[in-house]
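Re: that chain you flagged

S.,

Sorry for the slow reply, it's been a week of failed gels. I finally had a moment to sit down with the sequence you sent. For the record, here it is as I used it:
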Amino acid sequence: GKLGWISAFVYCAGAALRLARFNTNIGVVDKRFFQGLPSPAAAAMVAGFAIMFYTLRQNVTPLKENVDIALQAVLPYFALLTALLMVSRIRYPHITNRVLRGHRSFGHVVAVLFCFVAIMVVRGYAVPMAACTFVLYGPVYWAWKKWVDRRPPEEPFF
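Prediction finished late last night. Pasting the structure tokens below so you have them in one place:
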């Protein structure tokens, strides 16, 4: 319906604006953080959401119709939320620079490998949960800085 078209358009526009901001701020922003939700993370979140509902539909046979209805009802709003997070000024960590680059301990390497194994074993739930954790990290950290620390955040939300 119309809500689906609107949410798809807003998501595409958010991704385009996010890419434009990334390209214009290459030399200005801190290399350890992204400003706004990165487009691949937003795509992983929306795709992970669909993967999770597909897995639920396959594993819970009596609830197939309810899962389909829930997916159709929630996914447009979910796409709008991720589009808004892409154009926000919330800081997200640069995972490649923080987790995979530089000298790391043996325990760190084991933890990263364990995460990859978990994703491969329970991929119907691990990918959505990993993406959701990353997507929610930014707003939770922003709120933590704003309300718990009683310090103003580094940048405004939008």
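What I noticed first: Strands lie at 33-35, 91-93.

Talk soon,
D.
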